[in-house]
Amino acid sequence: MYKSRQHKKAVLRTINRTKKLVAGINNIRVHPFGLALQMEKSANGDFGEFKSDLKAIPASQGEVGVEMNYLKYFPKYKNPIKGQEISLVQIVKEEENQGTAQQGNIGYEMKQVQDGKHKGWTLDADPIRKLTIKDQDVNKILFHRGDIDGELNLSDIHKFKSKILFVSSDFRYSQIRKLSTTPLFTGKKDKCDTLPEKEHTGWSIIRDGNSWFPSYACIRDRPSAPKGALKGMEFKTAALLNGTDYLDIVKWGWHLNDKDKIVVDDIEIDNGSGDTFTAVAKKWNSLYVNEDKGPQLLKKEESEDGNLFKMPEYTKYTKQ
């Protein structure tokens, strides 16, 4: 079959290159008109697979960072996972360049771990979220968040001039809930990256008989900062079962190299970082939301109104 040992090596190299090329082609997202848009990245964990279209924000936009239309988590197993819900929980750490933290969510600095090995890590969730929208758009947004009857009962809503403040006490990414009796937001269909961005930032999945609905949990994100403000941002995103047990963790983010060019840190399994989630959970669990003088995030000793959902410390799920 082979003319020589060198010929054999050359043939095998060609075969391996072809396999890699085919695998890459299979992961390319294609525009309906036939244009390749983005290489999809994947990372396999113990109980599921993450997929993302993470990419750098164009430099022409005057900011530095990354964007992704989706970070999806597909459970590998259906029946072996003894649970009723899977949600994504995200934490973040910034490497500052100038000034203070540039994160836009309210209470960012107060949520940060203040010392020790995990200093600077914080929960990436908005206890208070400001949305500048027209009143008539509220029902539409809540409908896409899973509120079938369209009534304004997903959370307490405060109208301050042109802004609507959603007050949430849930640590899960994309969930705006104040009470545990409020249903989790789940997608209508498997279209995380196609619905208008203002209508959702992701969803959880729930058990539907012997399968999950929708088929994957997801988040959408666009972490960035003005040029010169940050040197990078690190993220860790965990798939959480029933709000208690951690299934898999993936890390991702961006940083600037020595020439101040952005480097995208693609998704990668990071199941050994559970202690970081524990540190963030302890900090989060010490905080409260107070609405008496306008929604604000407070330390426990300052107010005991509006207790937050308790974020679980790290416990790895094991098959039962």
Helix/strand structural class: mainly beta
Summed up, the helix count is: 4
Biggest β-sheet, characterized? Answer: 7 strands, antiparallel
Q: Report the sheet-strand fraction.
A: 35-45%
The counted number of beta strands is 21
Q: What is the residue-mean pLDDT, rounded to a whole number? A: 76
Kindly report how far apart the N and C termini lie: 51 Å
- List SSEs in N-to-C order: HEEEEEEEHEEHEEEEEEEEEEHEE
Instruction: Using the alpha-carbon principal axes, give the shape.
Output: globular
Helix fraction, binned, reads 10-25%
Oligomer: single chain
Unreliable parts:
18-37, 143-157
* Rg: 21 Å
What does this structure look like?
This protein is mainly β and 320 residues long. It has a domain at 41-125 and 187-299. It contains four helices and 21 strands. It has helices at residues 5-26, 108-111, 138-144, 274-284, and strands spanning 28-30, 36-39, 41-44, 48-52, 55-56, 63-75, 85-96, 122-123, 128-132, 157-160, 163-167, 202-203, 205-208, 211-213, 217-221, 224-226, 230-241, 245-256, 262-269, 287-290, 296-299. Strands 3, 4, 5, 6, 12, 15 and 16 form a seven-stranded antiparallel beta sheet that branches. Strands 7, 8, 13, 14, 17, 18 and 19 form a seven-stranded antiparallel beta sheet that branches. Strands 9-11-10 form a three-stranded antiparallel beta sheet, with no helix packed on it. A hairpin with a 2-residue loop joins β13 and β14 (211-213). The termini are far apart. Mean pLDDT is 76; it is low at 18-37 and 143-157.
